[in-house]
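W.,

You were right to be curious about this one. When I first looked at the sequence I had no strong expectations either way, so I just let the prediction run and decided to look at it fresh. Below is the sequence, 89 residues in total, followed by the output.
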Amino acid sequence: MSQTLQFQHRHKWFDLKLTDDGAIELYLDNCLRKRRDRGAAEPQYVWTNVELEWEEHHYIEARYWASTGQLKVTVNGDPLVETEMRLDG
């Protein structure tokens, strides 16, 4: 069963999804920005660059380690979310 983590950075909402086939997807305003299929290498990594204010760029990164369920989200390198998510419940 897929899982979704919703988080906010400033006035924008993001969704990070772990899909049934093991992929990780990053959405901004319900629009898929990046998808990374599960592979042999860890972590799976997705990112997007967002301009939130006039020429104020924010680099949103998510890294997921399927073997441990560890998920880390950063903004411009600063921690935003650190949690555990697993597809097996």
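Here's what jumped out at me. The first strand starts at residue 3 and ends at 9. And, maybe more interesting for your project: The mean pLDDT is 92.

Coffee later to discuss?

I.
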